[in-house]
Amino acid sequence: MTQLASTENQAFTVGDLINLPPTTDVETAGRAFGFGRTKAYELVRAGQFPCKVIPAGRTYRVVTADLRRVLGVQEQDTEHSPAA
User: Fold this and answer.
1) What is the per-residue pLDDT for 74?
2) Would you place residue 26 in the very low, low, confident or very high pLDDT band (cuts 50, 70, 90)?
3) Bigger pLDDT: 10 or 57?
4) Are 82 and 12 in contact (CB under 8 A)?
5) How do residues 29-81 score in pLDDT, each as one tens digit?
6) Is 17 in contact with 78 (CB distance < 8 Å)?
7) Chain centroid offset of residue 69 CA
8) Which residues on neighbouring strands pair with residue 82, listed in sequence order?
9) Where are the domains of the chain?
10) Read out DSSP for the chain?
11) What separation in angstroms does the CA of 6 have from each of 16, 57, 58, 59, 73?
């Protein structure tokens, strides 16, 4: 399943964040904050990721609504300016 239209090297837009499913993977959420994969997982394991993370078996899912809240993005935001 494709998470975003943006490539890994591009900044997230508000539209990208609004189009995410209800939960997303740690790598995608980390990129929204500007973290690399390693840093994102370090924060999750330390219990310091900036938004709600749900353990799901051997992986983790990030609650997209909380990700948007922490980044200050609301559903009605439709402009495509960088979010972080």
Assistant:
1) 80
2) very high
3) 57
4) yes
5) 999 999 999 999 999 999 999 999 999 999 999 999 999 999 998 866 455 45
6) no
7) 11
8) 13
9) 14-71
10) ----SS-TTSPPBHHHHHTS-SEEEHHHHHHHHT--HHHHHHHHHTT--SS-EEEETTEEEEEHHHHHHHHT--TT-----B--
11) 7, 28, 27, 23, 17
- Check pLDDT > 80 for residue 4: no
23: tokens are 């939960």
Q: Which two tokens stand for residue 59?
A: 């992986």
Residue 20 contacts residue 28 (beta carbons within 8 Å): yes
> CA-to-CA distance for 34 and 20, rounded, in angstroms?
17
Amino acid identity of residue 31, one-letter, is R
